[in-house]
Design a protein that fits this description.
InterPro entries: Phosphotransbutyrylase, VanZ-like
Protein name: VanZ-like domain-containing protein
Pfam families: VanZ (PF04892)
Distance between the termini: 42 Å
Keywords: Membrane, Transmembrane, Transmembrane helix
Order of helices and strands: HHHHHH
Amino acid sequence: MKRQYSKKYLVWLFPTVVAGMIFLFSSQHAEESSHLSNIFVQILLQVREKLGVFPQVTDVSLLHLFSMLVRKGAHVTEYIILCISFLTAFWVSGIRGKGSNIASFVLTFGYACTDEFHQLFVPGRAGRFTDVLIDSSGALVLSLIVVLVMHSRTMRGKRVRRRKSK
């Protein structure tokens, strides 16, 4: 019995580790963060070149736009993973339903707020509410998907019960 009891609490290490990783990424100086994003952009451009799918990108403003999209996409992905980790922790802890979905989103949104506040103290970084919204957008989409899945399962269960009762 003790083993199952400890699993309920150990699963909360997952969101803690994800939050810690986000904190470490946010602690990087602006130049270091941009450099990491640009490495990823260069890899994508090399893959594109080898596949020959997209036209050559030489305009510097397009490269900056592409780099920004990669950075913002990474932020959205980080926060989707954080929200999934909260949902998983609630699920394993036995807390299920729309309450856990709402709590997961609220915790993710709250962490995005604290992360942007943290970035106010990192050289070259800025804490912006628009970034909170961008970060949280992935968690919001995930939460809406969870609501739709839960709703469809509920409706399917009601249809099955109606058929059985006839």
